[in-house]
Amino acid sequence: MKITDIKTYVVDCYRTNWVFLKVFTDEGISGVGESTLEYKEHALLGAIEDFKRELIGKDPLRIEEHFYHMVRDSYWRTGPVLFSAISGIEMALWDISGKALNVPVHRLLGGKMRDSVRFYANGWFAGARTPAEFADKAREMAARGVTALKWDPFGSAYMTISSKELDAAIECIGSVRDAVGPSVDLLIEAHGRFNVATAVSIARQIAPFDPMFFEEPIPPESIDSLAEVRAKSPVPIAAGERAYTRYAFKELLEKKAVDYVQPDVSHAGGIMELKKIAAMAEAYYVPFTPHNPSGPVAAAATLQLAACVPNFHILEIMINDVAWRTSLTTESVDYREGEIIISDRPGLGVELIESELAKHPYSPKKLRHYAGTLTDIRPTQEKTAYYFNNF
Predict the structure, then answer these.
(1) How many angstroms separate the CA atoms of 265 and 301, rounded?
(2) 194 and 314, same structural domain?
(3) Residue 143: left if φ>0, alpha if ψ -120 to 50, beta else—which one?
């Protein structure tokens, strides 16, 4: 079997653009991957094109060899563009391998150790502005069986936060906690934007609400600073969505900077690299909680990992999404009693519907993380569809 082509597809999804790819072979088996990277789509497509030239004519089943060469031969060997390109290609090669053997990818990674996974909802707050509106949406999620909710309540604050902004964030968190009670876990997101003193202060303020974790409290560049926050924080710290390969996570673990690791299958190196990161975290007794706010192919790949990683803890899911998500792929997510059932379909278990992808072409997006628009990451409720078929 030989690789004959790699095609890319950039699809508008309101807050960013999904980047999908498809690897074709001379035996008619194709594999899909996802390299979605916010606001860097053009650079990403160029990186994929560079790898395509090297992969044409190669055996798609030699995944470790291709990963090794893509990293080694890139010379500049770090960064989100490079590793997002590698991740999507690697994902597609696993999809081909599973299809060639007519088994799901998790069978190739050691087999299932669980049939379903617990998840936390992101994007559940679409349209909410006031604490009361957040509380109403949280109640709705709890009534539907969702057992964990994540959001960023900190507005446009950057590095420091005023007393007024922090009071508003605390009021919002308190309203959600009062609405759902102690049986629903709260996960507080910071999008990597506070300095050490502010992050520690916020951690102490949110501790009474018993969050599962405080995510990415400071920018990702300084692991030593993150370790300082973790040492002083009364709540667990999660990070890793902007870290690439096992080497970055080795440093996070060795420096005791995190209580939860959050690699993203679309950025950190793909499926096998996440399996290696999870195994390394397991040796430190650190739970594996993969970052997963992207499209249907990345979600399918992450679910395959969740099936067979011993220290898997909880999976991120965008609980609602653009209404056209359901038309872009054959994604079929089975939701039962607050958990997601893991697919046993061959490969990743999802296919692209190319004619539908073309209906939602690339759309430039404004940077948003510190513009106070983080609660606007989903369109209004009437323009969204729930992630699950039976939610």
Answers:
(1) 7
(2) yes
(3) alpha
pTM of structure: 0.94
Instruction: Provide the CATH number for the domain around residue 311.
Output: 3.20.20.120
Which whole-number Å values give the CA distances from 183 to 82, 100, 148, in the listed order? 41, 43, 9
For 246-277, the pLDDT digits (tens) are 999 999 999 999 999 999 999 999 999 999 99
Phi, psi of 19 (to 5 degrees): -120, 110
Choose one of 71, 102, 133: the last residue of a domain.
Answer: 102
Q: Angle 49-55-61 (CA atoms, 0-180°, nearest 5)?
A: 130
70-94: pLDDT as tens digits? 999 988 888 899 999 999 999 999 9
106, 191, 267, 360: which one is catalytic? 191
Number of domains in the chain: 2
Of the residues 106, 267, 291, 360, only one is catalytic, namely 291
Alpha helices per DSSP H over the chain: 41-55, 63-72, 80-101, 105-108, 131-143, 163-180, 196-206, 223-232, 245-254, 271-283, 296-308, 325-328, 354-357
233 and 214 Cβ atoms separated by less than 8 Å = yes
| Catalytic (active site) residue 106 | no
Q: Rounded to whole angstroms, how far apart are CA atoms 32 and 15?
A: 22
Tell whether 66 and 140 lie within a shared domain. no
Token representation of residue 47? 């990186």
Instruction: Tell me which residue has tokens 């559940």.
Output: 124
For residue 191, indicate whether it is catalytic: yes
Q: Look up the domain containing 300 and give its range.
A: 107-347+371-386
Q: What is the CATH number of the domain that holds 90?
A: 3.30.390.10
